[in-house]
Amino acid sequence: MDDDIKKIVVKVGTNVLTNKDNRILGPVLRELVRQISVLNERNIDVVLVSSGSAIAGKEVLGEIKATDKTTRRQIYSSVGQPRLMRHYYSIFHDYGMRCAQVLATKRDFDAGKHRKNMINCYQGLLAEGVTPIANEDDAVSLSMSMFSDNDELASLVAELIDADRLIILSDTDGLYTGHPDDEDSEKITEVTVDQNVEKYVKASSKKEGEGRGGMASKLKIAKGTAKKDIPTYIANGKRENVIVDIVDDKEIGTKFIH
């Protein structure tokens, strides 16, 4: 393990937290929290950026009357966010740990008092041994000032707390030279910020509630974060012990460095 690692940000996407029927997977949440508890024992602070509130809301409500896309997102997320947090709260409690919800809009990262306020919030929680769980405040976020997705939120949080690593957990093992399912595709283990790997990525189509970020977005965010001297990883969140293994410098996922 790299002894210099004191703070990491882990972002977990909707596709990691759900199965093919878009149901929240309890065992995946439990494995995430188990790994956070292992790192806490090593005095490594973890901030978890978790998607999944819209899917959690859709599970409860099913189809709704609202037709406006933004209103639908607000409704699903508002119902799903407390449900998702209840899952997390219960599992953290099982591991003898405490967690907190930190909902943010893009404005909260603006230079000045908003940003200082966010720094105080994260520093205060971590100092008390509480794991912050961050998500976009979808209920009040204006469309024109939304994060592009939670990958962007995770990058901003990593910069905000001066994290030593950003780990973006996806449903693929990393960046490939083609589609991950093609047998000719090879996984790229390390990328520098000036390498042209964008050519390998195709746009993905997402259904409602499935999350806004695809690999193209992850690539942009990973490079941008690595440019700020925060090594960033894209890895498979359903792989057992993935976070701890990355902290232990095992060759997992795709690593982005300056």
Strand content: 15-25%
- Succession of helices and strands: EHHEHHEHEHEEEEHEHE
Q: How are the strands of the biggest sheet laid out side by side?
A: 3-4-2-1-5-9-10-8
Query: What proportion of the residues is helical, as a percent range?
Result: 25-40%
Distance between the termini: 20 Å
Tell me, rounded to a whole number, the average pLDDT. 92
Radius of gyration: 17 Å
Q: Report the total helices.
A: 8
Low-pLDDT stretches are none
Could you say which overall geometry the principal axes of the C-alpha atoms support?
Answer: globular
Largest sheet: 8 strands, mixed
For the secondary structure, the number of strands is 10
Query: What structural category characterises the helix and strand content?
Result: alpha/beta
Write the layout of secondary structure elements.
Elements: E1 7-12, H1 14-17, H2 26-41, E2 45-50, H3 53-61, H4 69-94, E3 98-104, H5 113-127, E4 130-136, H6 150-160, E5 165-170, E6 175-176, E7 187-188, E8 190-192, H7 215-227, E9 232-236, H8 242-247, E10 254-257
Parallel strand pairs: 1-2, 1-5, 2-4, 3-4, 5-9, 8-10
Antiparallel strand pairs: 6-7, 9-10
Helix pairs in contact: 2-4, 3-4, 6-7
